[in-house]
Amino acid sequence: MLLAPGSTPRIRITRQRQIILDELCSVTSHPTADDLYQMVRRKLPRISLGTVYRNLETMAELGMIQKLEVGGTQKRFDGNAATHYHVRCQRCGRVDDLDLGLIAGVEKEAAAKTRFAILRHRLEFTGLCPECQKKL
Amino acid sequence: MLLAPGSTPRIRITRQRQIILDELCSVTSHPTADDLYQMVRRKLPRISLGTVYRNLETMAELGMIQKLEVGGTQKRFDGNAATHYHVRCQRCGRVDDLDLGLIAGVEKEAAAKTRFAILRHRLEFTGLCPECQKKL
DNA sequence: ATAAAAATAGTAATCGTTATCAAAAAAGAG
DNA sequence: CTCTTTTTTGATAACGATTACTATTTTTAT
Ligand SMILES: [Mn+2]
Ligand SMILES: [Mn+2]
Ligand SMILES: [Zn+2]
Ligand SMILES: [Zn+2]
After folding, report:
1. Packing angle of the helix pair A33-41, A15-25 (nearest 10 deg)
2. What's this model's pTM, rounded to 2 decimal places?
3. Given a cut of 90, is residue B72 above it in pLDDT?
4. In this structure, are A34 and A61 located in the same domain?
5. Which DSSP string corresponds to A40-82?
6. Which of A23, A40, B90, B123 has the fewest CB atoms inside 10 Å of its own CB, making it the most exposed?
7. Contacts of B56 (CB under 8 A, 6+ apart)
């Protein structure tokens, strides 16, 4: 039987999807899709890289996780879906969370200066991580 | 900007480099490498895409221009090398400058919360441009 | 003018990501 | 349960932005 018009198709909880989410939420690093692939393969050795990409994309669209478009060649993922800020090491690419409160009213300020409708903001710091400071 | 002969023994003044820089500085949009390639080809029809990429990279490393790692698949370039903020339309990808003063002391605040050495920061707003607001 | 260094055009290679698709799994109705 | 429909998967191909390569040309220094 067909679904009733207007009904929302359910998102199925597959073993693959659950483990990808579990692995992502178990770390505070901000792994790339390939990082996650390596992590998940320890529990599901037959999973394909495409499945990892597909599910990360789906979960990001549903707002369960965040896709981070920080610098570098690869995108990173964040199990914390709430807005928060990051620091990225310009030498090794490490990305850490920053325990800095959200800048109050900054979206309202921005909205007053543009005709764009502001939906969200992203603040990212660039610098050198402790390890890379030693090496330079 | 004018390339000064003799001031930097490493970088040479080529017609290609000067025109790429001129074209980038002549617009307030934030063109991709391919956008610039199309613009520059009107004046140098024989230039190669690789030359555009190579020179944008070089000039960004020298701090003459900015390479913007905003969302989307392609990187964008900015003839304004000074720190300033951007809004990006999440529907069409348009990137505008935001005439918003730099957030005072935010790098200092961040530095107090991390062991990273903070070098710079980037603030980007996401939203919908006027045209895309109409269409949705 | 000569030689050394750097940059170019043209092209191939790389690599992160998406798309495709037959097969498998999950959900629903009876 | 069985039968049917929808979603997801694994495998692989395709894509597209960027980078690498290289013989030749251009620029700069002597
Ligand atoms: Mn985070
Ligand atoms: Mn700008
Ligand atoms: Zn580092
Ligand atoms: Zn738009």
Report:
1. 110
2. 0.90
3. no
4. yes
5. HHTT-TT--HHHHHHHHHHHHHTTSSEEE--SSSS-EEES--S
6. B90
7. B20, B24, B33, B36, B65, B67, B77
Condensed to tens digits (0 to 9), the pLDDT of residues A14-45 reads 999 999 999 999 999 999 999 999 999 999 99
Does residue A73 share a domain with residue A24? yes
Q: What is the mean pLDDT of residues B127-134?
A: 95
CA B48 / ligand 2 centre spacing (Å): 25
Q: Are residues B28 and B69 in the same domain?
A: yes
A43 Cα to chain B: minimum distance (Å)? 31
The rounded distance, in Å, linking the Cα atoms of A14 and A31 is 21
Residues B115 and B65 in one domain: no
- Which residues face B128 on adjacent strands? A117
Domain count within chain A? 2
CA–CA gap between residue A17 and residue A59 (Å, rounded): 9
Alpha carbon distance A47, A55 (integer Å): 12
Say what the pLDDT of residue A9 is: 58
> Whole-number Å distance, CA A75 to C1' C23?
30
pLDDT in tens, B86-103: 999 999 999 999 999 999
SS3 A22: helix
Interchain contact, A113 vs B124, CB within 8 Å: no
